[in-house]
């Protein structure tokens, strides 16, 4: 989405939280470069999302591979942030973490206190989201995997095998540009968080 396009959602300062909101639930969206993290936060946030997109310059050539995302001209240099009010007391905070290796130092901090994560995968380059899964497993942050629809045709079992996913980890399809589709992914994650097989989040001491 071009930031110059009018966005009717309220800005953060114009959308104060409900007076009774006392439970903030943090969800992180992770995955490789260009898998649709920023797009997903933009699609689903009720406020104009905070994003930290910077125009990619020649310096990124040979570092960030845009071959499979030819329309991509910006990259996230800190994180994406969005918000969804669930009810008077509960608010969901969404954080999209930048995917490239040079930003990995941000991750552990960003994950602190997260209830769970969505790992976005582009089926044409599944391996780009592998590091995210490695970190999440290391931190015992429960996660689900969502294959963003870039027209890839990998069979779900191939995706599971390539990512070495435990059988209980949900794997769903989505279109990060579509709000309803993103909502279904979030619901899947929340349902998973309430199943007894999901790992229990353990913040580093
Ligand atoms: N075909 C298709 N393109 C998408 C989808 N989601 C995102 N894109 C495009 O893919 C590019 C990368 O998305 P972006 O959200 O910036 O990726 P990020 O690096 O993970 O934040 C952008 O040009 C998006 O418009 C999708 O579901 N299908
Ligand atoms: Mg991004």
Condensed summary:
With 205 residues, the chain is α/β, with parallel strands linked by helices. The chain has five helices and eight strands, in the order E-H-E-E-E-E-H-E-H-E-H-E-H.
Helices and strands, with pairings:
Elements: E1 23-31, H1 37-44, E2 53-55, E3 74-76, E4 80-85, E5 90-96, H2 104-111, E6 114-122, H3 130-139, E7 143-148, H4 156-163, E8 171-174, H5 179-193
Parallel strand pairs: 1-5, 1-6, 6-7, 7-8
Antiparallel strand pairs: 2-3, 4-5
Magnesium ion binds next to helix 1.
Defining traits:
two-stranded antiparallel ribbon; 8 strands; 5 helices; 24% helix; alpha/beta; binds guanosine-5'-diphosphate; 205 residues; binds magnesium ion; six-stranded mixed beta sheet
Report the total helices. Answer: 5
Q: Enumerate the strands of the largest sheet in spatial order, edge to edge or round the barrel.
A: 4-5-1-6-7-8
**Overall form:** globular
Are there runs of 5+ residues with pLDDT below 50, and where?
A: none
Question: Main beta sheet: strand number and arrangement?
Answer: 6 strands, mixed
Taking the alpha carbons of the first and last residues, their distance comes to: 39 Å
Query: DSSP strand (E) fraction?
Result: 15-25%
How many β-strand stretches? 8
User: Roughly how much helix do the residues carry, as a percent range?
Assistant: 10-25%
- Main structural class: alpha/beta
- What's the overall average pLDDT, rounded? 82
